[in-house]
Amino acid sequence: MRFLKTLGYVLALPLILVAIWWASTLGETNFFVPTPALLAEAFAETWFGERIVSDVLPSIGRLVVGVVSAIIIGIVAGLLIGSIKWLRDLTEPVLEFFRAIPPPVLVPVLMLLMGITDGMKVAVIISGCVWPVLLNTIEGVRAIDGVLSDSAHTYGIHGWARIKYLVLPSAGPQIMAGIRQCLSIGLILMVISEMFASSSGLGFTIVQFQRSFAIPQMWSGIVVLGLIGVALSFIFQWTERRVLRWYHGLREVENAV
Amino acid sequence: MTQGAVTTNSAAPIPRGRKQPARKLPVKQLLGLAGIVGFLLLWELIPRVGLVEPRFLPPASEVIAALITDFGLAAFWVAVGETMLAWAIGLVMAIVLAVVLGFIIGSSMFLRKFTNSTVEFLRPIPSVALIPLAVLLFGVKIESTLMLVVYASFWQVFIQVLYGVADVDNVAMQTAKSYGLGTMARVRHVVFPTALPYLMTGIRLAASVALILAITAELVIGSPGLGREIALAQAGGAISGMYALVLATGLIGVVINLVMRFIERKTLSWHSSIRSEVIV
């Protein structure tokens, strides 16, 4: 019964929305908005075939490589800059400036510097994704509890052990907040780098459909991007729950009191 | 209870935030300045030494000169104006929409559960996916930009408002109820002050997202603004001009961040933990 109720909550609104969409497109033949049936057909036709190998998978591959490298670079550099005070003071204004540059603007720049290659697309993703992770890691490292830090010092915990047992856990929640932002920026940049300069990939294909007025196919491309976004967000939530289990537990206890 | 009491003060901000800048050591600013100078020197040297071809990465001095020339051009300011107009209109629309919907949906448990799955599905859809649709619907105009800006920044604010409304203290709410405050009064004096820090964080995030999307739309779609100028400069081979425009977008981003931080500090001067909300 509980399960049914939850299922009802999850499905009710989407079903209503689809029903409205279906009903409103039933009579008329609006060129821009396909009927649900047409969209489903176009979706299956377009994406369950060669395209998944030639366009979808390479795009996702570049996204994963870019995002993972950005996370690693961001955390490593963040730990470094966060724990050395003079380095932080030295780099802060420059980093703030780089973060303020809208990442898509770097697409033409990197196109010039690296040419239109897979490397350039990965570089675009890294160049945009690294900032939220980096800045959040710096903030997180800076906000380590002073008492904990002193205790660790007194017990002679240094180097890797200090990072593993003190710095990473206490900066963890903020690092994860950075990674959450980084994921959506990464997806945006993946699409833009392909819309701008590419002959394959999801972004390219969708723009191609739009230019040739293949409207249902274009919509199906938007749906694919949506599904990737949703999948990413679910993977993230699952990982976050595992990584920060202790943290959520702690908060629950604190809130209960 | 405390939050209800604090509300009455919120209208008259307490000028307490002013003390902070005086405490900072000048060493910090000097190091920051050194960082900027060092970065510019590095940038100047890399193309001069020949690590990267100057054709693709002009030295810093050349780019800054181009930027200063830009500052004297009317066309540059027109482009900036167009970008900022799309940014401002889109941001305001997104905030209004998100606040209204956020307060309505957030205050009802049923509506929250009812809409959750749809929100969680729509939110991660990258706004750039809507670019082809925007082009079809509106063509190469400011409306296309607005559509992307509103969609992207709406979620930032909306989710924050939902969290904020959910954070309302039970005791404060019960107290307000037993003192006989009506629904509107409760929203004004209990829910709103609780949600305000969340809302401000959302607005700050949305402000930078809106800038990103405004410039992206101009870059990819070609609607008028700085983004289009960058695409044109690149296509026309005006490389230092392109870098100058990229610098300009960064400067606008910095200014927006500073202004938003300032507004946040002013509106929340009564709130004890401005920073702690950002972490969660």
Q: What does this protein look like?
A:
- Chain A is mainly α.
- Chain A has a single domain (37-256), classed as MetI-like (MetI-like fold, Orthogonal Bundle), CATH 1.10.3720.10.
- Chain A contains eleven helices and no strands.
- Chain A has helices at residues 2-24, 36-47, 50-83, 85-100, 106-114, 118-142, 146-154, 159-196, 202-211, 215-243, 245-256.
- The model of chain A has no long low-confidence stretch (mean pLDDT 81).
- Chain B is an all-alpha fold and 280 residues long.
- In chain B, helix 1 (2-10) crosses helix 10 (183-221) and helix 7 (131-138) packs across helix 8.
- Chains A and B meet through helix 1, helix 4, helix 5, helix 8 and helix 9 of A and helix 3, helix 6, helix 7, helix 10 and helix 11 of B.
- Chain B: Keywords: Cell membrane, Membrane, Transmembrane, Transmembrane helix, Transport.
- Chain B: It is a multi-pass membrane protein.
Please describe the structure with a list of short key phrases separated by commas or semicolons:
heterodimer; A: 257 residues; mainly alpha; MetI-like fold; 11 helices; 0% strand; B: 280 residues; 13 helices; 79% helix; elongated; disordered N terminus; disordered C terminus
How is the secondary structure organized here?
The complex is a heterodimer of chains A (257) and B (280).
Chain A: H1 2-24, H2 36-47, H3 50-83, H4 85-100, H5 106-114, H6 118-142, H7 146-154, H8 159-196, H9 202-211, H10 215-243, H11 245-256
Chain B: H1 2-10, H2 20-23, H3 26-49, H4 60-71, H5 74-106, H6 109-122, H7 131-138, H8 142-166, H9 170-178, H10 183-221, H11 226-235, H12 239-267, H13 276-279
Helix pairs in contact in B: 1-10, 4-12, 5-8, 5-10, 7-8, 8-10, 10-11, 10-12, 11-12
